[in-house]
Specification:
By secondary structure, the protein is of the alpha+beta class. It is built from four helices and four strands. It is globular and about 50 Å long. It starts with 11 loop residues before the first helix and ends with a helix.
Length: 145
């Protein structure tokens, strides 16, 4: 049996987690927020992605006057047929002082939408956020032409 060349190599997510921890961050499990309750079986109205995005645009980075969605901090939105929503998001920097609070704020904003059941928000660090992820509106608001 041959051992792959990358055996023992650290996975990118493991490297990102290690780097985050070295900057004083806490374990990533602390950065998952779940709010809401599952919708009753047979619920006909399930929220759309556009509605979720509109709710995400109401949550702002406390240090930058731009919402999290337009900042490019929302990496993935998954809406299940039962109204369960999962979101992967990041922050502008691993040492961000609101890292423990932001997933809960995002989850609460999305959970308030009619047709959404349980919402889970995962804070991820891979890939790292870069300014290129910002929308054109965010760039204009921040004077980045």
């Amino acid at each position: 049996m041959s051992i792959p060349d990358d055996a023992g190599a650290e996975a990118p997510r493991d490297r990102a987690e290690r780097d985050f921890l070295s900057l004083g961050g806490a374990e990533s499990e602390e950065f998952t927020a779940t709010v809401g309750t599952p919708l009753p079986p047979g619920t006909e109205r399930i929220a759309t992605e556009d509605e979720v995005i509109a709710a995400l645009r109401t949550v702002y980075d406390p240090e930058i006057p731009v919402n999290l969605y337009d900042l490019g901090l929302i990496y993935d939105i998954r809406i299940a047929p039962d109204g369960t929503v999962e979101i992967d998001m990041s922050l502008t920097a691993p040492g961000c002082p609101v890292a423990g609070e932001m997933p809960g704020q995002v989850a609460a904003a999305v959970a308030a939408i009619d047709g959404v059941g349980e919402v889970t928000v995962h804070l991820v660090w891979d890939p790292p956020w870069t300014p290129e992820r910002m929308s054109e509106d965010a760039r204009l608001a921040l004077g980045m032409f």
